[in-house]
Write a structure and sequence with these properties.
alpha+beta, globular
Length: 146
C-alpha cells in the first residue's frame, strides 16, 4: 500500500471525492449509520490516504493536540471492505501514529473507537479509558496510546 499525507489545501478535487466516497461507503452505507460526515473539521486535519491497485483503500484523519481532543488524535479510520484481509488497517494506523509523533512531537494519541475494534487498537498500543458511550448509535470507547 502506498501512503500519501495531505493537508486539506493539498487535496485535488479527485482525491477529496475519493475520500468522501470511501467514508460514505463504509460509515454510512456499510454500517447503516446516517450521520454528518462533512463536519467542518477536515480543514484542520492531516489526511492519511492509502492506495492499492490504483485506488483509495484506507484512510485516517489526524489532529494536533487541541484541534479535536486535548491530545493528538486519529479519527475516521477506514479500510475498504474487500481490502481488510491484507493488514492495511495496521499499516494505515502505524503510518498515522508515525506522522503524529514526527509532526507534533507527541507520543500521547487519543481516539474514539468502535467497541468491536478494541482488540485491533489494543494491538497497536492503545488502552481504553472512561466509560463506553453511544456515538451515532454505535457503541464507542475512548482509547489512549502513550
Amino acid at each position: 500500500m502506498n501512503i500519501e499525507i495531505l493537508t486539506f489545501e493539498e487535496f485535488s478535487l479527485q482525491k477529496l471525492y475519493e475520500v468522501l466516497q470511501l467514508r460514505a461507503e463504509v460509515f454510512v452505507v456499510e454500517q447503516n449509520c446516517p450521520y454528518q460526515d462533512v463536519d467542518g473539521k477536515d480543514q484542520k486535519a492531516l489526511h492519511v490516504l492509502g492506495y492499492a491497485d490504483g485506488k483509495l483503500v484506507a484512510y485516517t484523519r489526524l489532529f494536533k493536540p487541541g484541534d479535536y481532543f486535548e491530545r493528538a488524535s486519529i479519527g475516521r479510520v477506514i479500510v475498504k471492505e474487500n481490502y481488510r484481509k491484507y493488514g492495511y488497517g495496521k499499516d494505515i494506523m502505524n503510518a498515522s501514529i508515525k506522522v503524529l509523533e514526527d509532526e507534533f512531537d507527541t507520543k500521547e494519541i487519543e481516539l474514539s473507537a468502535q467497541v468491536y475494534l478494541k482488540k485491533f487498537y489494543n494491538d497497536l498500543g492503545f488502552i481504553e479509558f472512561g466509560e463506553g458511550y453511544l456515538e451515532d448509535n454505535i457503541p464507542h470507547i475512548r482509547m489512549l496510546r502513550n
